[in-house]
Amino acid sequence: MRYRSTARFTLVVAGCLIAGLPGNAAAQQAGIKAGFNASAISFNPDFGTRSASESLIGVTGGLWVALPARGRFAVQIEALVARKGATELIRFGDSLTVTYLEVPVMLRVRDVLGSGAYLFAGPSVGFALSSTYEDEGVEEDAGDELHDVDVGLTAGAGVEIRRLGIEARYTWGLRSVFQDGDAPEVKFRNRTFTVMAAFGWSR
After folding, report:
1. Which of 81, 149, 78 has its CA nearest to residue 107?
2. Is CATH 2.30.110.20 the right assignment for the domain spanning 2-20+29-202?
3. 158-179, pLDDT tens digit by residue?
């Protein structure tokens, strides 16, 4: 229940802020961003003799907005499509690939350690759009085994020069990726490191 509450709160905040943008157009900064991520799934407690899967390289990108456009502090909201998953998850050679629509709502602190540098952190909600599990060359839809919503915490840093920027972030999944099955005591959580380039403008 606490994950649903966090997801609803994140979406309500994002919706209210975005809905208010047209009325305060001079105070917003917006843009697009895209990049790559390295994702894995951690096991808690250890699954057999391992504490995490092997990493899967994916892509991510989408839209972002920060308001106000000036000042030291801002709220940064994003809508990103991210390909996540893991390899050697359950057995050697298998893989899980999940495409999420992610909505992070984060506090952004500008001009850290010099002009153009910034930090950001906040909750993120991911909605599973599609999923595929592959083992020994056979692919199948894994949607029935996964939770439709993933909740996490994101933190990172970036640097912005004029309209261009680059940033790195890490997202800790808080909810088990899988629904309770044969091993309900084991929690499988997303762990994702992402690097993206961004283009933005103010108005």
Report:
1. 78
2. no
3. 999 888 999 999 999 999 998 8
